[in-house]
Write a structure and sequence with these properties.
It contains 13 helices and three strands; from the N terminus they run αααβααααααααααββ. With 338 residues, the chain is mainly alpha-helical. Its main location: membrane.
């Protein structure tokens, strides 16, 4: 068997899910699921092990002695058909749009949609953009001049019949370098987020993205164009910041549904951007880049109104205090008793 490059690619793609499978198999089952299934003792054991791992103390020192489902609401155990599942999803989704949360939910969803629309929309067409820039043989040319000279629907009958396309491997070498840059940006975010704060970091990257979008109208050097486009595409990293802000905003009993909902909206933005943004760039490059700049300005404005986590000092619970552990399906009471 000839071990070609595409086989290596397939193995590389499969290896990551396999590593994830091994990692997941080492994790305990969620106590929320165990409790819904009526396995309260196992649920408590998982909570004790988490407590021991986080605190370094003995599991027997875990103050919660009993966990029980709160009565009321729709539970996973009540789902026996499609309509029951729809009713469960409805009851979990509606709280996201209560009056106290409506503005923030819409704001977060709008930000996620635009972020992934921009990032994925440009990234999907980035190899084509690199190929077109490479055809200039090192000549300094404005990006929009290159893109508007490209016919996105052009293809010869010979290429279609033979299914043979010349591939410039240097394009994918650049893509690998850019992917490494994304990892570095993530690490930088992780290091400075506690110093700058989530909102400040988010808005700072938006400002940097604005500068790069303006620069793309004027810079001609290949390296500078690639760097500017990389910074613009790296706005997708800000989606993680917005998700973190949303996680802190939603109460625990609707947190999982809130995260799923806003990520669904973000992925919808990625699908829309992947399908239309590239064609718009090749058809009307200059106006579209100015429109993208306006979108990032809107993002920065919306980011200013994102909810902030209130910093409050937590008091040590008394022996009769109750800690609430919330499930994806329904709230759980964890009774603290001695």
């Amino acid at each position: 068997m000839h071990f070609s490059s595409w086989r290596v690619l397939l193995l590389a793609n499969v290896s990551i899910p396999l590593l994830a499978l091994v990692g997941i198999s080492a994790l305990p089952e969620t106590p929320k699921y165990l409790l819904v299934q009526g396995r309260g003792d196992e649920s408590l054991e998982v909570l004790r092990s988490i407590f021991a791992n986080n605190s370094g103390r003995d599991p027997s020192e875990y103050p919660v002695k009993e966990v029980a489902l709160e009565s009321g609401g729709v539970s996973l155990s009540d789902v026996h058909g499609f309509l029951d599942a729809v009713r469960l999803v409805w009851h979990q989704t509606v709280p996201l749009f209560y009056r106290a949360r409506l503005w923030h939910t819409l704001n977060i969803c709008c930000i996620q949609f635009i972020i992934y629309f921009l990032a994925q929309g440009i990234f999907m067409w980035f190899p084509t953009i690199l190929d077109e820039l490479g055809t200039r043989n090192g000549e300094n040319t404005l990006l929009c001049t290159v893109l508007q000279g490209f016919n996105i629907n052009s293809s010869s009958e010979d290429e279609a019949s033979s299914c043979s396309v010349e591939v410039d491997t240097s394009t994918y070498q650049v893509m690998i370098i850019i992917a490494a840059c994304f990892v570095v940006i993530y690490l930088i975010f992780a290091y400075i987020i506690d110093y700058m704060g989530k909102k400040n970091l988010l808005m700072a990257w938006m400002v940097l993205t604005m500068i790069c979008l303006v620069a793309l109208h004027y810079v001609e050097q290949f390296a500078l164009v690639v760097i500017a486009l990389t910074v613009v595409m790296a706005i997708g990293n800000c989606g993680g910041l917005v998700s973190t802000i949303a996680m802190e905003f939603y109460p625990t009993h609707i947190n999982a549904m809130g995260m799923c909902f806003i990520m669904m909206v973000g992925r919808l933005g990625a699908v829309v951007g992947s399908n239309i943004l590239g064609r718009l760039l090749f058809a009307s490059c200059d106006p579209i880049f100015w429109a993208l700049l306006a979108l990032v300005v809107l993002l920065c404005t919306l980011g200013y109104f994102l909810p902030e986590k209130a910093r409050s000092q937590q008091k040590k619970p008394s022996a009769t205090a109750k800690a609430i552990v919330t499930a994806t399906t329904s709230p759980i009471f964890a009774i603290n008793s001695k």
